[in-house]
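Make up an example, fold above all:
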Amino acid sequence: MVYNFDELVERKDTNCEKWDNCRDRFGRNDLLPLWVADMDFKTPDFIIDALKQRLEHEVLGYQIRPASFYNAVENWLHRRGWQIDPHKISFSPGVVPAINFAVDVFTNPGDRILINTPVYHPFMYAINRHRRTLVKSSLINSGEGRYTLDFDDFEKKLADGVKMYIMCSPHNPVGRVWTLEELTRIGELCLKYNVLVVSDEIHSDLVFKPHRHTYFASISEKIARQTVTFIAPSKTFNIAGLSSSIVYSDNEALHEKFSKFVNSFSISAGTIFGDVALEAAYTHGDNWLSQLLDYLDGNFEYVVDYLKKYVPRIKTGKPEGTYLMWLDCSELNMTSSQIQDFLVSKAGLALNPGHIFGEEGEFFVRLNAATQRAILEKAMDSLRDATEQGFK
């Protein structure tokens, strides 16, 4: 089946956070939203069909997860190079809740937790809200839209009593897909200093050629025993509203401890429709995902080429992974707040301000390219027109 990702979908006035929450977030309701990380594409037909089929049984009572649910996860990951034990799969109502659970269950108040900034801001919230000590190791910006790990600083921070490292792989917002060599070095250092790795791999399906995602826990048995991994179909298949994610650890003690913690809140049952959608996505999603990646890659090329030609003072590169683009606005010679005011007031665009991902993102913005090409064209034209009118 050929999917039409150019088909426009009306999302405004559907209680959609991305389209209907701009006034609260940006002060205006008439903006073109390219911010929060969900896609403007229809949820795939095989997921919708599975939900409709479940609704034909007109009883929505308490549920148990069938073996087919766990097999779907196992087979999806196996097709991507990682063999797991389905008996060590745990559930969480989303990756962000899972990160908060992990901070609470595996560390104590005051413990030091390391992140690589700029990074997905809920990492920082999870650490601070649970009264842990936030430790940052800044990524190195090469100046060409590509970031690398500062391994000297990373090891120095690990050696200073860090208990947990929260990894973002692929990395949001800078779009890096860490190489096997980088991940192996991370693993060796975390083993050396006995640091637990909590690995957010929610974007692991969204990786573009020639890059290849390596699941961190697949590198070695020792690394696997030191790791708790989070994945979900929510970003890949645009089903974030169904609140279903997978937590996995080969370490039986970590698996048991996490599962018992989640069960203590009586939320491990999840929802019928979250389970149905996840199973359908991981069973039937390969062809749809392949076509999605091709379309997103074309969107990246369009934005990169357009900015080079018409708005050269804003620079970006094609992400290696995720559908998020990291735009460097430093040559606009504006403060972070002035950049946001310019984008909102002059260009009519809603993009995530870079400073929320850490101070390293002060002069950046994050653009969600997972939308129809026509919307991106309109956004780029608005940006060009605003820059031609000046920055006053």
Notes: The longest helix spans residues 286-310. The mean pLDDT is 96.
